[in-house]
UniProtKB/TrEMBL annotation:
InterPro entries: Nucleotide-diphossugar_trans (IPR029044), UDP-sugar_pyrophosphorylase (IPR039741), UDPGP_fam (IPR002618). This is UTP-monosaccharide-1-phosphate uridylyltransferase. Pfam families: UDPGP. Belongs to the USP family. One of its GO terms (biological process) is UDP-N-acetylglucosamine biosynthetic process. The keyword Nucleotidyltransferase applies. Gene3D superfamilies: 2.160.10.30, Spore Coat Polysaccharide Biosynthesis Protein SpsA, Chain A. It comes from Prototheca wickerhamii.
Length: 558
């Protein structure tokens, strides 16, 4: 390591004594590890930190002189003819895609003690997020990948999630995947910075240990580069795309294929799946920025930066809704479709490092001291910041948010507060209910008579749309066209209000069914059709839990 610029802020008196050699070795080992984990080493990290901290101290505006506008992209109605056409095209492309799940976050806002990918997506089957993702990829592989191609899945973990993710896979036999097709890449934390000069912060209780914190989900790009996986996917596996996604969105495979179709149709090197964004909603906005030198880029602008940028330029009213009731700028949901060839070229050029930022909370007006230590961070959606200017960057927005994005992020109390304020609750409750809704809406779009939904209240969230609890295995159908093939006569199928339909048999089809009341589980694996079936039983019911009962956490949070 170069002997420049590395300063530790802490109990320096003890650092100088000779009776602490073991502790010093321990510190050195940690510094070596921090050096290895960052592309370019610790000195590069500190150099970057000094630059970013100086810019922050000066109050530099990264968007100085930029003019924002709404970028090029596609806005689709879920289930429309255009949607289904792009979905079909995208599913064919999905057979040449590597999938990347970022699952290193602890999900502190949710307050769940387990890892988020182990949460049930819904209560009808209890299928967890990781199982849903893996089985969707396997279903796409069976239907759309070239013979013998096993579609890869990378899961980025962290110290907080790695062992439990590994155990979840092992305990469930990789959910049917081949063990070699799932790779876990663990992100490491980065050193904390004690002050504006980027001196490293030591633990208050241990003068021989540097404080560390997560670097953010942008680490995924560095790991795909340093592991050599992205390059091998392109050169050895002949894959064309890489799709990134977050830990808890059961709607992922309802919307991602259409985005892949849009990428192929429009030649997008980088395509962000998006949903309509209400002004001030805490999600990033996909924005085209024209720079003073005449160049332009399409980027994610985080919600806290959007309002001042708009006020200072084209929209004096700031981050406001237009006549549609939404912001004209689509909301980023961090499901990204990236073309592998330009992606690999860019990783090569930048050594896997992507744009970073720093967000210190200052303790003084001179902006030199911090309230607490800070660190550099990076976000996976910032990758286009360094792409060549001629790279086509766009978005695919699905107009019906419930069909594309319903993540589980908030604990019940904050979820109820958000719902009361008219914002999406992004809770285990909404995640489950939106999944039933999207499945029912798919069947309805194909001519099945469904519902109507009831109104329900769970965990203090009132007025919820409670559709029949309809779920099927991904191997039964991914996408509208596959679903259509499972229904010989959609007009002969009725799914009544408050009923439950679980299709567990991947080989069954439905000819005619009147699900009047209660529950139907289509189990087994034999081929055959549900025909002339009338179901009327007591079935399963969903009811709010007694708050004084002793229930599993997975249930109380929904
Ligand atoms: N994650 C990691 O794998 N590693 C990390 O170090 C951190 C996170 P959050 P966030 O969907 O509403 C994003 O914490 O970062 C994984 C976008 O930036 O749930 O606050 C983690 O496991 C924002 O523009 O979200 O905000 C999870 O799978 C907007 O789109 C994923 O990263 C926002 O999501 C996201 O982590 C949103």
């Amino acid at each position: 390591m170069e002997a420049v610029g590395l300063e530790l802020l802490g109990d320096n008196a003890r650092l100088l004594t000779t009776d602490a050699d073991d502790d010093k070795r321990r510190l050195l080992a940690q510094l070596r590890q921090l050096d290895d984990n960052y592309a370019g080493g610790l000195i590069k990290y500190i150099t970057n930190a000094k630059r970013l901290l100086q810019e922050s101290k000066e109050g530099a505006n990264p968007f100085e002189g930029c003019v924002p506008s709404v970028p090029e992209g596609e806005r689709l109605d879920f289930g429309s003819a255009a949607f289904i056409e792009l979905e079909d095209r995208g599913l064919a492309e999905a057979g040449r895609t590597g999938f990347v799940l970022v699952a290193g976050g602890l999900g502190e806002r949710l307050g769940y003690s387990g890892i988020k990918v182990s949460l049930p997506t819904e209560c009808a089957t209890g299928r967890c997020y990781l199982e849903l993702y893996v089985s969707s990829i396997l279903a796409i592989q069976a239907a759309h990948a070239p013979a013998g191609q096993r579609l890869p899945l990378v899961i980025m973990t962290s110290d907080d999630t790695h062992a439990r993710t590994e155990a979840l896979l092992n305990d469930n036999n990789y959910f049917g995947a081949h063990a070699t097709q799932i790779t876990l890449l663990k992100q490491e934390k980065v050193a904390c910075l004690a002050d504006g000069d980027a001196r490293l912060a030591l633990e208050p209780e241990d003068a021989f240990r540097v404080q560390t914190k997560p670097h953010g989900h942008g680490d995924v790009h560095m790991l795909l580069h340093s592991s050599g996986l992205a390059r091998r996917w392109r050169e050895e596996r002949g894959l064309r795309w890489v799709a990134f996604f977050q830990d808890t969105n059961a709607q992922l495979f309802r919307a991602l294929p259409a985005a892949l179709g849009v990428s192929a149709a429009r030649g997008f090197a980088f395509n962000s799946l998006a949903v309509p964004r209400r002004a001030k909603e805490a999600i990033g906005a996909i924005t085209r920025l024209a720079f003073p030198d005449g160049s332009a880029r399409t980027l994610n602008v985080e919600y806290n930066q959007l309002d001042p940028l708009l006020r200072a330029t084209t929209h004096p009213q700031g981050d406001a809704n237009d006549a549609s009731g939404f912001s004209p700028f689509p909301g980023n949901i961090n499901q990204l479709v990236v073309e592998l060839a330009p992606y690999c070229a860019e990783l090569e050029r930048r050594g896997g490092v992507i744009a970073e930022f720093v967000n210190p909370k200052y303790a003084d007006a001179a902006r030199t001291a911090f309230k607490k230590s800070t660190r550099l961070e990076c976000m996976m959606q910032d990758f286009p910041k360094g792409l060549p200017l001629d790279a086509r960057v766009g978005f695919t927005s699905v107009n019906q948010t419930w069909a594309a994005y319903s993540p589980v992020k908030n604990d019940p109390a904050s979820a109820a507060d958000k719902a009361r304020a008219g914002d999406p609750s992004h809770s285990a409750t909404s995640g489950e209910l939106d999944l039933y809704k999207v499945n029912c809406k798919m069947l309805q779009a194909l001519g099945v008579s469904v519902g109507p939904p009831s109104e329900a209240a769970f965990n203090g969230i009132q007025g919820l749309e409670f559709w029949p609890r309809v779920v099927w295995r991904p191997s039964w159908a991914v996408g509208f066209s596959a679903l259509k093939q499972r229904l010989a006569r959609p007009e002969a199928v009725t799914i009544g209000r408050d009923t439950v339909l679980v299709i567990d048999n991947p080989n069954a089809s439905i000819d005619s069914l009147d699900l009047k009341r209660g529950t139907l589980v289509v189990a087994g694996s034999g081929e055959g059709a549900v025909a002339d079936a009338v179901v009327d039983n007591d079935g399963w019911t969903w009811e709010p839990l007694d708050p004084n009962g002793d229930w599993p956490e997975e249930l109380t949070i929904r």
